[in-house]
Design brief:
The protein is mainly beta and 175 residues long. The chain contains one helix and twelve strands, in the order βαβββββββββββ.
Length: 175
């Protein structure tokens, strides 16, 4: 023990003790009051099973911070899936973002399901499930999107895979 001067920058480790598994409500009276807060929790959590965020309010706009970015979670898998699902007819996520309203940044195994029913859409009949969620980006930029899938940044380019967007009304301000 001949060290007389401590290191200027000590080594540090972040240990994430937060784990997610199961269903959580998102809304003013929910476990998470905003979708932004719920996604922030997902982005930093250890997943120990499938995660479902149930939207319990009719509107997600003023209290949200857009874009809402879902990052690649190293614990996501075909078992540890992530679903955002509405519970009310007429639910809307509305805001303005020059990139995308919802950005899937290398995220995998994500489903956004806009139906309050559990009926699965089939080819015949053309549509059996309801469309109860509308996602609208009001930004007028020609480069904006409503739901944007992208790679994570270099050096580890990781594309968004196994993504399902179903039973949603999706609207941007331009074609």
């Amino acid at each position: 023990n001949t060290i007389t001067t401590h290191p200027i920058t000590p080594n540090t480790y972040s240990i994430n003790a937060v784990s997610l598994s199961g269903s959580y409500t998102v809304g003013a009276a929910g476990v998470y009051t905003t979708l932004t807060a719920a996604i922030a929790a997902y982005n930093s959590a250890c997943l120990t099973g499938p995660v479902v965020f149930n939207l319990i309010d009719l509107s997600y706009s003023a209290s949200e911070t857009f874009p809402i970015t879902i990052n690649a979670n190293p614990f996501s898998s075909s078992v540890n899936t992530f679903t955002i699902k509405t519970t009310l007819a007429g639910t809307a996520i509305t805001g303005s973002s020059a990139s995308g309203l919802i950005v899937l940044n290398g995220a995998d195994w994500v489903t956004i399901d806009g139906s309050i029913s559990s009926t699965v859409n089939t080819i015949c009949p053309p549509s059996a499930a309801s469309r109860d969620l509308t996602i609208t980006n009001t930004n007028v930029s020609t480069a904006s999107a409503v739901i944007w899938l992208q790679n994570t940044a270099a050096p580890a380019l990781d594309g968004a895979t196994h993504i399902t967007i179903m039973n949603c009304n999706v609207a941007g301000s331009l074609n």
